[in-house]
Amino acid sequence: ETVLTQSPATLSLSPGERATLSCRASQGVNGHLHWYQQKAGQAPRLLIYDASNRASGIPARFRGSGSGTDFTLTISSLEPEDSAAYYCQLRSNWPPSWTFGQGTKVEIK
Amino acid sequence: EVQVVESGGGLVQPGGSLRLSCAASGFTFSAYSMNWVRRAPGKGLEWISYISPSSTTIYYADSVKGRFTISRDDAKNSLYLQMSSLRDEDTAIYYCAREDYDRIGSFDYWGQGSLVTVSS
């Protein structure tokens, strides 16, 4: 089973700064790596699918990149509403499972 | 508009049972795979179960295998999670999530969640 490790656990930045979130897989991923945002008290929302494609309605300041075992979510210029937990996720074929990283919490100062 | 709405959560004693429901609307429910995902207090997201269209394929996470049962009723556009032998560590918000038809393994629509508290 592929394990996803996210870093850092917490990121505290000011509005306008760039946030760089990392997701490392324990083995090579076939590209179907996705990112979600979950704000306090809300349902998770799909941000990025297949490593680098923004989901519908997601602002351009969110960018996904990476391949193989290393993936990155970049928020180019933080807005106050970006305060949330961010998770990477993939589907493994064997054993059949859907795995999430442990999350990165982004705090806006 | 696509919507999924969970219900059925509540307080239950350890060893007890509870059934969650998820009502779907705004899309052809029968054509989509559906999942349950939970988030325990202070922890991250955990996938727990999957069901394919027509219920032909079902998977569970090891943490719930043998205790939880996923099912669907396409005539009612509804997804269910029957939970039994509940433990303290099953306390969580339970989300119903649709798996995207084209983007393998991604969950494109989520409900607001249903809180399950296991406590004596």
Task: Describe the model.
The complex is a heterodimer of chains A (about 110) and B (about 120). By secondary structure, chain A is mainly beta. Chain A has strands at about 5, 10-15, 20-30, 35-40, 45-50, 55, 60-75, 85-90, 95-100, 105-109. Chain A has no helices and 10 strands. In chain A, a hairpin with a 4-residue loop joins strand 8 and strand 9. Chain B has strands at about 5, 10, 20-25, 35-40, 45-50, 60, 70-75, 80-85, 90-100, 105-110, 115-120. The radius of gyration of chain B is 14 Å and the shape is globular. Chains A and B meet through strand 4, strand 5, strand 8 and strand 9 of A and strand 4, strand 5 and strand 10 of B.
Keywords:
heterodimer; A: 109 residues; mainly beta; three-stranded antiparallel sheet; B: 120 residues; 11 strands
Quick overview of this protein structure:
Chain A contains no helices and 10 strands.
SSE layout:
The complex is a heterodimer of chains A (109) and B (120).
Chain A: E1 4-7, E2 10-13, E3 19-29, E4 33-38, E5 45-49, E6 53-54, E7 62-75, E8 84-92, E9 97-100, E10 104-108
Parallel strand pairs in A: 2-10
Antiparallel strand pairs in A: 1-3, 3-7, 4-5, 4-8, 5-6, 8-9, 8-10
Chain B: E1 3-7, E2 10-12, E3 18-25, E4 34-39, E5 45-51, E6 58-60, E7 68-73, E8 78-83, E9 92-99, E10 107-110, E11 114-118
Parallel strand pairs in B: 2-11
Antiparallel strand pairs in B: 1-3, 3-8, 4-5, 4-9, 5-6, 7-8, 9-10, 9-11
Helicity range of the residues of chain A? under 10%
Sheet bearing the most strands of chain A, described?
Answer: 7 strands, mixed
Shape of chain B: globular
As a percent range, the share of strand residues of chain A is over 45%
| Strands of chain B, total number | 11
What's the total count of β strands of chain A? 10
Number of continuous helical runs of chain A: 0
Q: Total helix count of chain B?
A: 0
Mean pLDDT of chain A: 95
Order of helices and strands of chain B: EEEEEEEEEEE
What is the H/E string of chain A? EEEEEEEEEE
* Rg over alpha carbons of chain A: 13 Å
Average predicted confidence as pLDDT of chain B:
96
- Detail the poorly predicted runs of chain A: none
Task: Tell me the helix content of chain B.
Answer: under 10%
Assembly classification: heterodimer
User: What characterizes the major β-sheet of chain B?
Assistant: 7 strands, mixed
Q: What is the CA-based Rg of chain B, rounded? A: 14 Å
Globally, the shape of chain A reads: globular
